[in-house]
Amino acid sequence: ALSHWCIFHRNKAKQVVETWQRQFYCAPRDQRICFLYLANDILQNSRRKGLEFINEFWKVLPGALNDVFNNGGEFGRNTVIRLIDIWEERKVFGSHGQVLKDDVFGRNIDNRNRNEKGITYKLKQPAGEQLEKLISGYNHVYGLPFDEDTLFGNYQAAINYIEKVQKEHGNDCKLNDS
After folding, report:
1. Rounded to whole angstroms, how far apart are CA atoms 23 and 4?
2. Which pTM does this prediction carry?
3. What is the Cα–Cα distance from 76 to 121, expressed in whole angstroms?
4. How far is CA 9 from the centre of its chain?
5. What is the pLDDT of residues 112-155, one digit of tens each?
6. Is residue 74 a contact partner of residue 80, using CB atoms and an 8 Å limit?
7. Any residues with CB less than 8 A from the CB of 100 and at least 6 apart, and which?
8. C-alpha distances in angstroms, 143 versus 49, 99, 156?
9. Is the pLDDT confidence value at 27 over 70?
10. Where does the UniProt annotation place the signal sequence (predicted)?
11. Closest Cα to residue 16, out of 27, 2, 33, 30?
């Protein structure tokens, strides 16, 4: 019922996720898995209606997953692995599911094997806030499903075109980075 209430109020996704994050870190360690399950339910059931929760949870989930993976014992580790596998399989975070997986597993493997060669991954937002705005705007205007990689490619092509025009005409026209 709580996840449905959150989804109903998706226009307040930022505040909902901020509250989720505060309560997650205030909760006793053995109850944090319940918060991950709540996030999972919200993510999977809200994605048909918009990207608000996906964008907001993308910012806070890596830290929460790492916390449970490192401090939740065997059950916590198994839960994190299972959730990440589900999100990757169902493409909850689009093509960025592998980044989340690499962040959690790469960071934890690197922490355990300091003497071995390893790669540490830092989680980046999927192409930053501009891409989030683009995706949200596209979804709002067209209300259609989209291929994130194609959309990002079109976005990058537009930027390249603008930069080409800018070079051809000098610095008379400036790009607005805001």
Report:
1. 18
2. 0.59
3. 21
4. 19
5. 444 333 323 333 444 445 555 555 665 555 555 555 556 556 66
6. no
7. 61, 62, 65, 84, 87, 88, 93, 123
8. 9, 26, 22
9. yes
10. none
11. 2
